[in-house]
């Protein structure tokens, strides 16, 4: 921040003093600068913003944490703004606002930061240059932090010469509480001190098609661009991204009638085969030799209905990637949002929308701020990132929706870290806690892929469809749970496995009933008999096939 210059008289006095007594070896201490509160301006509100704006002070009312529209998070960068109004006769000029930051920690000195603004009229919410604004680094944002703003004239006065405000002054000469809060000394904020993290494994898709092999390299700079966009739109201190070895794909991508669904199935199988932790999201970066399906930017395998460690195989999504992480970042945030449990927000013909979204047209409804790009986002000009519209940002509704998901998955990650390092912490989950289940994907062409995992059942139990088993010479029908995938007509299936030895068993899918009208299996229903032996791929078993 630019600090004000010394007054001419004070600067001359210091220069004269320095020229006398040349034998003095130690420099004289610099006198403390004093300022007078600026007349004709009134501070009205103090807001803080870690992605979504929260009003901390209005006049002399300091908001309680229970009234915050979103929680604040310790260890996450924060924008602080002071908003103001001026008297009708106010004379435009530069003014100096000082933000005093008092830490609750013992032994930590108060910090004062300056903001100099050319004040020409009332503050303008859409401009960082027409409000007093400060950027607090993550390590400064702690629970119980206390803030105060005072507004002064920019020219300091020598000690004992500062003018006193005239109590009877009127109009622009009146000093009308240019401080926030007005009467209380400062405002304390409440910030959640717990760690909040997102763990994502990026899986480049290397396409082999004809004589072409796509470039599936992902430079560090592109990973960094995606990390920053995910962090800006989610209540986290850090998003931890890693890049896995590429997944080789030898089928068409551009002409796929099922969009990215076959790739999503392969990624879900990979999540199982890699024995990935349930808090790890897998995101496929799709490079291609034959183009992309028209109009499709990204896709998620499912929208998990619960925060359940048994649904790790559903934390899978994918999107286009052409070597530009920034271009892929918005789709990345959207698709990870689906796997966090978020549905579409209505703006431009989206299907499967969230009926509880509170703002019409998909607008965010609240001022946003990018903790990395330092840009403001308008509540009416920005759209929630779960829309298909431009100017994507996170709404307070979306921020609150993913908070408990991130909170729980972070707890799993920390438990895993403690257990892996030999600590005393115990995991609240273990892959062996779950039964082995059968998972399937029925594509629009009637073909179906099957695999198994240890996990939880998700979806709606069908009243008519079932899995037919041939087991030890007996016919057994098991219920099946069905859920749609987003952005195409693929259906996800999940079923409990029957008890007993299944290595020689056969199974098939039977589709009937009005709920499945228009869906046809290749070759008709029931589908072809599948041998369970060789399909078995659940992690955590002593002797997987």
Describe the structure.
Strands 13, 14, 15, 16, 17, 18 and 19 form a 7-stranded mixed beta sheet that branches. Helix 2 (about 220-235) packs across helix 4 (about 325-340). The chain is of the alpha+beta class and about 550 residues long. The protein has 3 domains: about 40-160 and about 170-190, Immunoglobulin-like (Sandwich), CATH 2.60.40; about 195-410, Collagenase (Catalytic Domain); about 435-515, no CATH class. It has helices at about 10-20, 220-235, 260-275, 325-340, 395-420; strands at about 40-50, 55-60, 60, 70-75, 80-85, 95-100, 110-120, 130-135, 145-155, 180, 185-190, 190, 195-210, 210-215, 240-245, 245-250, 280-285, 300, 315-320, 370, 375, 385, 390-395, 435-440, 450-455, 460-470, 475-485, 490-495, 505-510, 530. The longest helix has 25 residues, at about 395-420.
